[in-house]
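Students often ask what a holo structure prediction actually looks like on paper. The answer is less mysterious than it sounds. You provide the chain, you provide the ligand, and the output is a string of discrete structure tokens encoding the 3D arrangement of the protein together with zinc ion.
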Amino acid sequence: MPKIKCRNCKKELIYDCISDIPTFPFCCERCKLIDLGSWLDEERRIEEPITDDKAE
Ligand SMILES: [Zn+2]
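The corresponding structure tokens follow.
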């Protein structure tokens, strides 16, 4: 059976079919949200808007 490691916590997941893991490639919804959250955080840091609203 194929195995993957959760991208967040590295827990090993064994599955028959990818559709067995609705949260693939994570072990659970929590890990998925944590990973997504940190990714969005990175994005936000990169795309920090340069607020130039004082131009008047
Ligand atoms: Zn996990």
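The CA atoms of residues 26 and 33 lie 9 Å apart.
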